[in-house]
Amino acid sequence: MKMEMEMETRTSGLIILPQIKHQRRCILIILLPFLSILLPLIIIFHSQASFFTFPSSTPSPSGPFSNLGNPTHSSHSNLVETLTAKLKDSVTFLPLKDLRYSETPMDGNTWFMSSLTDTFEEDEPAYLYFPSNSSKGRVLCIKGRHTTDGTKNSYALAWPEALPPSATLLEGLTFVSDTYYSHENLWHGLCAIAPFVGWSMKNQCLKPSRWVLFHWGELRTKMGSWVWNLAKAKFGDVGIEVFGKGDGPYCFEKAVVMRHELEGMRDEKKLRIIDLMRCKAREACGLDPMGRGKELNERGAPIIRLTLLMRRGARSFKNEEVVKGIFGKECERVEGCVLSVIQSEDLSFCDQVRVMTNTDIFASPHGQQQTNMLFMDQGSSVMEFFPKGWLEHGGVGQYAYHWMANQSGMKHQGAWRDPIGEECPNPEQELECFLFHKDSKIGHNETYFAEWARKVLNQVRVSKLEQASKAQVTSSACEC
Ligand SMILES: *[C@@H]1O[C@H](CO)[C@@H](O)[C@H](O)[C@H]1NC(C)=O
Ligand SMILES: *[C@@H]1O[C@H](CO)[C@@H](O)[C@H](O)[C@H]1NC(C)=O
Ligand SMILES: *[C@@H]1O[C@H](CO)[C@@H](O)[C@H](O)[C@H]1NC(C)=O
Q: Which GO MF term does the entry hold, naming one (predicted)?
C-alpha cells in the first residue's frame, strides 16, 4: 500500500503525501500545541501499518475537533489531512526579483530572493542552502519560467511534507545561480560558477543533479559554450533545468543558491578555486593537468611561449600585421622564444585550454577572451591593450583582468592605452562616452610595444631559468 503511494506520487509528479514516515515527524513539529491531542494518535500510528488500514467500522466524527476526549482513528486522520492541506495552502510565493532594491541590486540580500539572508562562513562564498537549520528544515520552491521579467517569477519555502499544491519535487542537489551580468560572457560566467566550485570544495566535492540559471530573476536556459565546458569539466554533464513540465511550482530536495559571485572569499581561496578549474579543464581536454613542465631547447635554454590572442571587430588592432611584426621581432631576439598569433573566435574550448596551457606570456586586447588566462601555469604573464577612452570612461570594470591576474596567480605586466582616437562628442556624458569608445579599434606604438615586450620577455626568461634549476612540485589541485 505504502509502496504504491510512493510510486504514484513519483510518476504523477504531484506530491500529495511524499513520505509517510516523515509526515508524522513534521506534523509533530508543526503542531506542538496540539501535542496532547496527538499523543494518543502517535500510539495508534505505531500500532498500525499505515494510515490507510483504519477499520472502516469506526464511527465518523462530525469534524476534526469533535470527540477530542475520545479520539478515533478517522477523526485524527482527518485532522492531520486538514492541517496538512492548510499548511500546503499557506506556502507563500514572493517575487524572485524585488524591485524595492533596484537601486542596490547586488547589495546585502540583493534583489534576488531578497527576503532570505545568506550564510557566511569564514573565507567561503556567501550562500543559501535548503533545507537547513536557518530555513527551519524547509526546502526551496520556485515558479520561474519567465525569461523577460524576473518579478513574474517567484519563490517560497515549504516543508517537504507539505509542498504547495501541484508541486513537482526535483530530487538531488540543485545549483541555483543568479547573476547580475551573464552566464554567456566568459568572465561573468566564470564569476557565476566559481562560488559553486568553492562550495563544493568545502562540501565533499559534491556535484549537482542540475543547474537552474537566472539573470535578474529571469530564467536562463543555457550558459555560453565556454562557460558550459568549464562547468562540465568540474561538475560533469548535468542538465540545465528549464521547468518544462508546466508552470510549477518546482521544489528542490536540496538546493544551493549563489547570488554574490566571489564575494566573501579571500585571495587564497580564489586561487585554490582557479587551480582546481585549470586542472579539471586540462584533464577534460586530455592534457597533463600539471601543464607542460620544463621545456628546454637543444641548447638548454628555456622555451618561452608568447601568445598574441587576437579579436575580430570590436577592440581588434587597427593594424594586426604591424603588431605581429613588433612582437615577432622582439621574440626572435630571445633564445627559446616562440610566438603564436591566434584568433580567439576560431578556437574550440579545448583549443583555448591547450593554447593557454602552452603560454607564458599572454598578450591580448581587453576583453572576455582574456579570461582564458586561468589555463596558464601560475606565475605566467599578462599584457593588456585598451582603445582610447577607457581610462576615463571605463569604470572599475576595466580592471577586471588585472584583478583576475592577481587572483589567479598570474603577473599582470601592465596595460597599454591608445592615446589616439576620435573624441567623444559629449565628454561629460559618462555612459554615452563609454559606449562611444567601448568597441573602437586599437592602434599601436612601435617604440612602446618593443620596449615593453623586451622587458617582459627578459623577466620571464630569468624566472624560467630559475625554475629550471628547481624540482617540479606536484599539485593536488585536481583532487576535488
Ligand atoms: C542544526 O541544528 C541542530 C540542532 O540544534 C544541530 O545539532 C546541528 O548541528 C545544526 N546543523 C548545522 C549544520 O548547523
Ligand atoms: C594586484 O596585486 C598587486 C600586488 O599585491 C597590487 O599592488 C595591485 O594593486 C593589485 N592590482 C589590482 C588591480 O588589484
Ligand atoms: C610611443 O611610446 C614612446 C615610448 O613610451 C613615447 O615616448 C612616445 O611619446 C609614444 N608615441 C606616441 C605617439 O604616443
A: pentosyltransferase activity
Pocket flag, ligand 2, residue 414 (CB < 6 Å): no
- Which residue's CA is the nearest one to ligand 2's atom 3? 406
Residue 178 is assigned to a structural domain of this protein: yes
Please tell me the predicted confidence (pLDDT) of residue 479: 86
- What distance in angstroms lies between residue 390's CA and the mean position of ligand 3's atoms? 18
**String of DSSP letters for 83-99:** HHHHHHHT---EESB-G
447 in contact with ligand 3, CB cutoff 6 A: yes
Domain count, the chain: 2
pLDDT band at 70 (very low <50, low <70, confident <90, very high): low
Ligand 3 geometric centre to CA of 438 (Å): 23
Q: Indicate if 245 and 320 belong to the same structural domain.
A: no
Better pLDDT: 263 or 101: 101
Q: Is residue 278 part of a domain?
A: no
Residue 52's pLDDT band (cuts 50, 70, 90): very low
Place 49 in a pLDDT band, splitting at 50, 70 and 90: very low
User: What is the C-alpha separation between 225 and 219, in angstroms, rounded?
Assistant: 17
Among 218, 244, 269, residue at a domain's last position: 269
Q: Calculate how far, in angstroms, residue 392's C-alpha sits from the geometric centre of ligand 2.
A: 20
Determine which residue's CA is closest to atom 4 belonging to ligand 3: 448
Query: Looking at the chain, how many residues does it have?
Result: 480
Q: How far is CA 246 from CA 214, 355, 437, in A?
A: 18, 44, 45
- Does 65 have pLDDT greater than 80? no
User: Is there a domain that residue 453 lies in?
Assistant: yes
pLDDT of residue 71: 54
How far apart, in whole angstroms, are the C-alpha atoms of residue 309 and residue 345?
10
Q: What is the CATH number of the domain that holds 329?
A: 3.40.50.360
406 Cα nearest atom in ligand 2: 1
Q: What sign results for the dihedral spanned by CA atoms 269, 407, 271, 220?
A: positive
Ligand nearest to the CA of 267: 2
Considering the domain architecture, whether residues 220 and 317 belong to the same structural domain is answered as no
263 and 319 inside one domain: no
227 lies in the same domain as 309? no
Among protein residues, the one with the nearest Cα to ligand 2's atom 8 is: 406
- The pLDDT-based confidence of 85 (bands split at 50, 70, 90) is very high
Q: What would the mean pLDDT of 330-339 be, rounded to a whole number?
A: 97
Whether 181 lines ligand 2, by a CB cut-off of 6 Å, is: no
251 and 102 in one domain? yes
With respect to residue 43, please indicate whether it lies within any of the assigned structural domains: no
Question: How many angstroms is it from 448 CA to the middle of ligand 3?
Answer: 6
How big is the CA angle at 271 (ends 365 and 259), to the nearest 5 degrees?
Answer: 85
Residue nearest to atom 13 of ligand 3 (CA): 445
Set of cell numbers at residue 261: 559571485
What's the 442 CA to ligand 3 centre distance in angstroms? 15
**Contact yes or no for 356/376 (Cβ under 8 A):** yes
User: Does the pLDDT value for residue 201 go beyond 90?
Assistant: yes
Whether 192 and 323 share a structural domain: no
Model confidence over 221-275: pLDDT tens digits? 999 999 999 999 999 999 999 999 999 899 999 999 999 998 889 999 999 999 9
- In the block, cell 494518535 appears at 41
Q: Whose CA is nearest to atom 5 of ligand 3?
A: 448
Q: Are residues 363 and 238 in the same domain?
A: no
* Secondary structure (3-state) at 44: helix
